[in-house]
Amino acid sequence: MCTARAPVPSASGSPAASFAQGAPFDTWPPDPALRERADEASGPDRAFAGVNDDELMGLIGARQRLESRAAWELLMAVAEFTRRRPEPGCKLDLPGRMPAAWSQHADAELGAQLRLSRIAADQLIGLAHALTAQLPATSAALRDGLIDLAKVRIIAWQCDLLTPEEAAAAEALLFGDPGVGEMTSGMIRDRIARAVIQVNPKKAMKRRE
Asked: What domain range is 173 assigned to?
């Protein structure tokens, strides 16, 4: 019978050796240093010359974390845009200095900039608003590359009806699991749905309806 051996850091000497399993950049946070090293390791034409399979998988993981960070950066910029486009009479008195509602023209303005439909732009504003005013732990997880944008959308949808305090309690139940970074989208959906039920069963029922 073939038995698996624990992988060891690459000794290939390739430009991507530091991305092999167990090597420093295999789990490096999504900062400018990671992007720079990933670019160098991938090669100018992204031919991945001299990169073995173990190193390539590390590079793929690094790109996913960087993609999460880029999504977070965009959403934080959209959150600032929302602060500057409050609905008339709305003060910035929600957590994160967010207004309770945004201008009815904000979606058209943002959509024109991003080449999005008004519906898609409004959804993007809503997600940025939720991360800033209601889901700071989810926002931090996206920033740090722990989860991707698809999982963020699942969490935001499940917590949509919760108050900031209730959402914080649901986030604590989800992110209190040390294995959350390894969960699939389906597992995230199941765990956050259970957390919402535990925090406020009536709102969980309303969400399902």
From this structure: 141-209
Which helix (H) or strand (E) element contains residue 118?
A: helix 118-133
Give tens-digit pLDDT for 81-119: 999 999 999 999 999 999 999 999 999 999 999 999 999
Short-list 60, 22, 53, CA closest to 38: 60
* Whole-number CA gyration radius for the chain: 20
- Give Cβ neighbours of residue 108 (< 8 Å, ≥ 6 apart): 118, 121
**Count of domains observed in the chain:** 1
Q: Within a domain: residue 100?
A: no
Contacts of residue 127, defined as CB under 8 A and 6 or more positions apart, other chains included, come to: 75, 152, 153, 156
CA 12 – CA 56 distance, rounded (Å): 12
Q: Alpha-carbon distance 136 to 129, whole Å?
A: 10
Enter the pTM of the model.
0.90
